[in-house]
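Lab notebook, bench 4. Continuing the backlog of folding jobs that were queued last week. Each job is logged with the same field layout so the records can be merged later without manual cleanup. Today's entry covers Probable cinnamyl alcohol dehydrogenase, a 360-residue chain. Filled in by technician R.K.

JOB TYPE: sequence-to-structure
TARGET: Probable cinnamyl alcohol dehydrogenase
LENGTH: 360
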Amino acid sequence: MEVTPNHTQTVAGWAAMNESSKVEPFVFKRRENGVDDVTIKVQYCGMCHTDLHFIQNDWGITMYPLVPGHEITGVVTKLGSNVSGFSVGDRVGVGCIAASCLDCDHCRRSEENYCDKVTLTYNGVFWDGSVTYGGYSRMLVAHKRFVVRVPDALPLDAAAPLLCAGITVYSPMKHHGMLRSPGGSLGVVGLGGLGHVAVKFAKAFGLRVTVISTSPAKEREAKERLGADHFVVSTDQKQMQAMARSLDYVIDTVSAKHSLGPILELLKVNGKLVLVAAPDQPVELPSFPLIFGKRTVSGSMTGGMKETQEMLDLCGKHNITCDIELVSTDGINEALARLARNDVRYRFVIDIAGDSNSKL
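JOB STATUS: finished
OUTPUT FIELD FOLLOWS
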């Protein structure tokens, strides 16, 4: 493991050493707190499906040892001399991004997530050449640009997944005008970590929501707990046909290979389908439903920093959090195994600090 000269802080964390789908305790070095940096005591870290993809090297790009985690909340313990707007003791979060060039058109528009030189919070290569390690660890040093404030109204544990799941659905909803379309209709494909937050955002902004799932068992929860207006079992042709041309928008959160054809048929003419998950196999995209309905398919990846702060502030205002199951640090591997089976409602969050005061 290569260590750069200013990486002097010893940190305890949890890392995957190979493709075995497991993590183990791992001690490593983080950089000193630089003039533009914020040091954070990690309290909680959400477990994203992306963590599993990287741990198992599903995308063929994993650099081991891998310390996953990009849904991080905690408390500021140290500030660099160039940092303003944060104080020691502030409740903060770090999401998917550790660095970007800060100088291109995307960065100037706070679309850091689309910067050519974007560095991910883990499994990325930082400015100093070091490999980035994520939030499955006790402490994090982050550049000030990539730290957001967690509103006091939000508990740090249930807010953690908003840093990835939340912004990943909020960004396309904002971009495509869904948040300015009260009375409009949105379909949410897949009721997992991303899907359940999409339903909450949509209801907060006055949309009519249809959940589209392969699992009939989720209907009651979708309607009663999350407030969805309709529920469609995607494998039931009759139900799908009855919903044809009924939706303005669809957000597809499913990270397994599937066909977009039946989903496109649910959209009105001119409807928009946004993909926010990353199956490791290409999805099927038949041309007829696109052509005959003048429909658009697009993608979206997380969001920029301004947008992330805006999303968190809105969550504070509307009291939107993730439905979570808290996991102790010695339960991470069991949670990963359950995540692989989609056996979670709706997001695992690791209690990194493991102390009863960490909810703050």
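OBSERVATION: Confidence is low (pLDDT under 50) at residues 356-360.
SIGNED: R.K.
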